[in-house]
Design brief:
Elements lengths: L1 E7 L3 H4 L8 E3 L4 E6 L2 E6 L29 H10 L8 E8 L9 E4 L7 E4 L4 H18 L20 H13 L23 H6 L2 E6 L2 E7 L19
Antiparallel strand pairs: 1-4, 1-5, 2-3, 3-4, 6-7, 8-9
Amino acid sequence: MEHQYLVTDDIPEVYERDEELPHVMDPAGETYFRHEGRGLVLGIYEQDYEPWAVDGTPWDFGHELLPDKLERISEPLAKTFQQYPCLSDAGIKTVINGPFTFAPDGNPLVGPYPGLKGYWCACAVMAGFSQGGGVGLTIAEWMIESEPSSDVFAMDVSRFGDWTTRNYTRLKVSENYRRRFAISFPNEELPAAGPLNTTPAYGIWKAQNAVFGVGYGLEAVNYFAPDGDVAFETPSFRRSNAF
């Protein structure tokens, strides 16, 4: 996904402080910022997103940046300037637009690659500085001890299979990017790219008001909603309507 962030010029409210500013995320505004020198880095996970290199990253691509597209982030940027008035007087030192790498569920792809002996994977590490240490430790333990010391199924490359098509990946990554700062609920099922694979009984179950979940690309019944209820589990940190 293309991702844009700005580096501001000096801001007195930043450099006159005695300690570093905390990292701030604004879920409603889709923005984040952090202390950077005498100014701020301000990034945006915009709803007007743009996938990049959906057919594969060019082999000769290294650390190059992409053309700036400020019009794509103008609306959330305007909200941010309203919320943090000191930004209105700050100049923009640098605009950066570059690609972030994502797997369909937003987690890294790590571990021995199924079917290729001796081939290991450590890809889709979206936030290298924050995730790199854990990914490096995990794959080192896996290679030396035959298994990691923690349960790392959520980033095991084998959690995906041949059903993970380019189109499925593009739709799920786009959904994940838009929801980057959204609250994640237990057992929440996200709708993009579905239904992908179904059993012959899918139509029968759907007619019986089934609420479906997905496991390894296959639609399966989570529960049957009572007659008259919408076939949807409302996300909750407590007992949902599925109870």
